[in-house]
From TrEMBL:
Belongs to the class-II pyridoxal-phosphate-dependent aminotransferase family. Histidinol-phosphate aminotransferase subfamily. Keywords: Amino-acid biosynthesis, Aminotransferase, Histidine biosynthesis, Pyridoxal phosphate, Transferase. It comes from Lentilactobacillus otakiensis DSM 19908 = JCM 15040. The gene is hisC. Pathway: Amino-acid biosynthesis; L-histidine biosynthesis; L-histidine from 5-phospho-alpha-D-ribose 1-diphosphate: step 7/9. Homodimer. PANTHER family: HISTIDINOL-PHOSPHATE AMINOTRANSFERASE (PTHR43643:SF3), HISTIDINOL-PHOSPHATE AMINOTRANSFERASE 2 (PTHR43643). This is Histidinol-phosphate aminotransferase. One of its GO terms (molecular function) is histidinol-phosphate transaminase activity. The modification N6-(pyridoxal phosphate)lysine is found at K222. Its EC number is 2.6.1.9. Residues 29-347 form the Aminotransferase class I/classII large domain. It catalyses: L-histidinol phosphate + 2-oxoglutarate = 3-(imidazol-4-yl)-2-oxopropyl phosphate + L-glutamate. Signal peptide: none annotated.
Length: 359
């Protein structure tokens, strides 16, 4: 009835909504700091644009080519507009790449730990995942990745900055790596969190002009604060971009999403201000963790992955939840991931951690 590759897969089970969790725990307030959402929201221009649209032509299909959004992104990154493909979140882009490139028996390299959807979609296509451990600093080990390449390798994933560790690789390092990878292997760099590095030259989108086997992913869910709207895109060259467009379903972005993403992208000032706030708060988190004796990886994202050394991460997770703050656990034993929130929430969580450790 179904292909063998999916018979052993467990369905995704979403966490309870905030309202459900508040009711379950008897809480009046619950702040989610577990999903790497943008605590500062999105540009006020988004609401204005949506109000102006006001459901006009809602009975018609959307612009399948997302022309306006396509043109402003192409201009911003100095790339040709036909090198872009949009998806209903990066989830759809990851699915499309796996569907177009992978066949049963192929091998896919990914770092460990990293974003779980890379492995999921490889498994669905019948490919084999070969996970490569991070180096001692928690960064993706490109030398180990190179050594792991075999005659069966078809795809390599690099999440940069990496989720859940938050660690970052310089563009020059990625360029050297891609240059050593055979052209028959597709290298995919997921830059979902790249805006939070604070460096204007940290992206490798420009390298897609040099390497035809390089694909770079970006999303509107993080720095642009549009997680609910599900808009992501990939940049790559022919012939891959043509195959992806052939497989992509038409009208995969709603006009609602296109209008929101266009308005958000045009307001780069808001994005820059948001990133500055998050970097400032991230530094405060780093100082707190150092003072508290809690090891962590250097983060270039809107989250920090830290170890509850000498303590119980699950117990701390539950303690914070009972006090109205939800962090992410279960990614690695004795480790928690905290999304950088607003100052008042960051300070509240830090005080709670201090109290927990003092017990």
């Amino acid at each position: 009835m179904v292909k063998e590759a999916v018979k052993h897969l467990d369905p995704y089970v979403p966490e309870l909504t905030l309202e459900q969790m508040k009711k379950q725990k008897g809480l009046d307030k619950l702040v989610r700091m577990s999903a790497n959402e943008n605590a500062y929201g999105t540009s006020p221009d988004v609401a204005k644009a949506l109000d102006k649209w006001h459901y006009a032509d809602s009975n018609l299909y959307p612009d399948s080519n997302a022309d306006e959004l396509r043109e402003i992104i192409a201009t911003q990154f100095d790339i040709k507009a036909d090198k872009l493909i949009f998806g209903n979140g990066l989830d759809e882009i990851i699915e499309l790449l796996s569907r177009v490139i992978l066949e049963p028996g192929d091998e896919v390299l990914d770092p460990a730990p990293t974003f779980s959807e890379y492995a999921l979609h490889a498994e669905i296509e019948g490919a084999k995942i070969r996970s490569v451990g991070l180096d001692e600093s928690g960064r993706i080990d490109l030398k180990a990745m190179t050594r792991a390449i075999s005659s069966k390798t078809k795809m390599i994933w690099i999440c940069n900055p990496n989720n859940p560790t938050g660690t970052f690789l310089e563009a020059s390092a990625i360029r050297s790596f891609v240059a050593d990878v055979p052209e028959s292997i597709t290298v995919i760099v997921d830059e979902a969190y790249i805006d939070f590095t604070g460096g204007i030259h940290d992206s490798v989108i420009g390298l897609t002009k040099e390497f035809k086997n390089l694909v770079v992913l970006r999303t509107f869910s993080k720095a642009y604060g549009l997680a609910n709207f599900r808009v992501g895109f990939a940049v790559c060259s022919e012939p891959l971009i043509g195959y992806l467009q052939a497989v992509r379903l038409p009208y995969n972005l709603s006009t609602f999403a296109e209008v929101a993403a266009t308005a958000a992208f045009k307001d780069q000032s808001f994005v820059n201000q948001t990133v500055t706030k998050i970097i400032d708060e991230r530094k405060k988190w780093e100082h707190f963790l150092i003072k508290s004796g809690l090891p962590f990886y250097d983060s270039a994202t809107n989250f920090i992955f830290f170890q509850v050394k000498g303590g119980d991460a699950d117990a701390l997770h539950e303690y914070l939840l009972e006090n109205g703050y939800l962090l992410r656990n279960g990614l690695r034993k004795d480790w928690l991931r905290v999304t950088i929130g607003k100052p008042e929430d960051n300070q509240a969580v830090q005080k709670l951690i201090t109290a927990f450790l003092a017990k």
